[in-house]
Amino acid sequence: MNPARRRIFAMVFDDSDSEDEFLVRRPRWIREREDHIHTLDDLDFITRYHVSKQTTLNVLQQIEDHLEYETDKNFSISPINQLLCALRFYATGSFQVTVGDLGGFSQPTAHRIIHKVSNAIALLRPRHAFFPETDDQLLKTQTTFYRKARFPKVVGAIDCTHVRLAKSPGGDNAKMYRNRKGYFSLNVQAICNANLEFMDIVARWPGSTHDSYIFNNCSRRAMFEQGRYGDAVLVGDSGYACNRYMMTPLDNCYTAAENLYNESQIRTRNPIERLFGVWKRRFPVTAVGLRVSVPNCFAIIVATIVLHNIAVGAGEQVPHDDDELHLPAPWDVLLAQGQMGNDPQVQAAPRRENPNHRWRRAIIDNYFT
C-alpha cells in the first residue's frame, strides 16, 4: 500500500475522537456554452471577435481537422467553440480566465485551446501569407506599388514593429527582450504588399534586436542576395543599409529629382506603417501585451497575421480604434503631427555618396530626373 492510501486508510478507521478535516474534491461542473455564430447578429459578432461570421466559418473549414476530438465523451468542446475562444482572446487581449468564462470553460482549458487553435491557424501561413515568386506575381505586385507613387520595381515594403510582452520572460536572457522604449517585447519584421497584406514575417527576435540585424539574418535577404527576384527592390526606412535590392530615403536632398525620389519613397513604404496599425487594431492582443510564454507568442503572432490577410482578402473593414490601447496613429495623422520626416527641402551644397548607393542613384537619374 502506498503512503497516500495508508494515510487515508488510517483516517477512515481511526477510533479516536479527534475531528479530522477531509479535503473534498470539487464537483465537476460543465457550464453552458453559447453558440455565438447563431445567437449574435453580424454587427455584434464583428464587434466581439473583430472578424465576420463568414471569415470565421472559412477559417474553421480549413483547420477543423486539427481541432476535432477523437470522441464526444467528457463533454468535448466543439471546433467552432474552440475557434471562437481563440478569436476572443486575439480581439481583446483579456486574461485567459476571462476568455474561458465567456466560452463556458476553465482557464487551463482556455489556455490549451488558444495555443491549439493558434498552431492550427499558423499552419495556414504558406497559403495566406506568401512572398511573390513567379514572374507574374512579381509583376503584379510591382505594378500595384508603382500606382501608389510611381516608384519602380518595388516588390515589398519592410519594417519592424514591437509586440509587447505583458511581463518579463525570465531567465538569463530576459534583459534582451527589453526594447529601447523600456518595455519587454518581440521585434517582429514584416514585408507587405500595397494592399496591406503580410507577405513575409520574422517573429522570433527579442525586443532589443535592431531592425537591420533582423533583416541581415533572415532567409529573405539571402534570397535577394542570390538574385532570386531579379531587379526587384524593397523599400525601407533609414535604419536599413541601402544597396541593390533595398531602397532607403536620402538623408538630405540637394536637387529637385532627389526631393521627388524621397517623396515617392515615403509614400511607397506607406503600407507597412499603416499595416501595423490596422493589424494591432484588429487584434489588440498584439498591442496590449501577450500573457503567455515566449515560445507560445510565436504561433499567436503568426495566427493573427494569417487571420488579418484572410480578412483583407474578404474585404472586411478595419475595427475602430480603442483609445485605451495607445495604438499607432494612421499614416496621414503621423505626417500631420510631424511625427515622421516630411519631404526634405532642397539643399544647395554638394555631397559624396557611398559606392553602395549607386543603385539608388540610378533610380533617381532614370525615373525622377
Q: What is the number of domains?
A: 2
Percent helix: 40-55%
Instruction: Give the strand line-up of the largest sheet.
Output: 3-2-1-4-5
Rough outline: elongated
Percentage of β-strand residues: 5-15%
Could you spell the SSE succession in H and E letters?
A: HHHHHHHHHEEEHHEEHHHHHH
Describe the structure.
The structure is a single chain. The protein has 369 residues and is of the alpha/beta class. It folds into two domains: 36-123, no CATH class; 129-367, no CATH class. Helices cover 47% and strands 9% of the residues. It is built from 17 helices and five strands. The chain has helices spanning 3-12, 36-39, 42-49, 53-67, 79-92, 96-103, 107-122, 125-128, 135-149, 211-216, 219-225, 256-268, 270-282, 285-288, 294-313, 331-336, 358-367; strands at residues 154-164, 185-192, 198-206, 233-235, 246-247. It has a five-stranded mixed sheet with strand order 3-2-1-4-5. A hairpin with a 5-residue loop joins strand 2 (185-192) and strand 3. Helix 4 packs across helix 5 (79-92), helix 5 (79-92) packs across helix 6 (96-103) and helix 7 crosses helix 15 (294-313). It starts with a helix and ends with a helix.
